[in-house]
């Protein structure tokens, strides 16, 4: 899957349905940055006296797992040529759903890529 796909992150911070929200990004990479930034803001909120905060991937995973819900919708477009004699193509455009495990894998890959 290409990294430049419009991505919507759906999340719910607590069991209260009123905490449902979404964030949308132009790419999967930007979405992963957004999730990391969300966690970093939470860390600063919880530790206002500490200037330089650091965390590891396990901390980020715990944050993601601690949310009531988090999932992603990633835009997908596919052109199909159903027959060799047809003069037209069919295309499918949709948002594919991904769970929090996928988000954790993608944040890890994203942070690993940034570190190199």
TrEMBL record:
Against InterPro entries, the record matches this protein to: EHR_sf, ERH
A Pfam family this chain is assigned to: ER
**Superkingdom classification of source:** Eukaryota
SUPFAM superfamilies noted in UniProt: ERH-like
Q: Which UniProt keywords apply?
A: Cell cycle
What is this protein for, i.e. what is its function? May have a role in the cell cycle.
Its family? Belongs to the E(R) family.
What this protein is called in its record is Enhancer of rudimentary homolog
Record organism: Senna tora
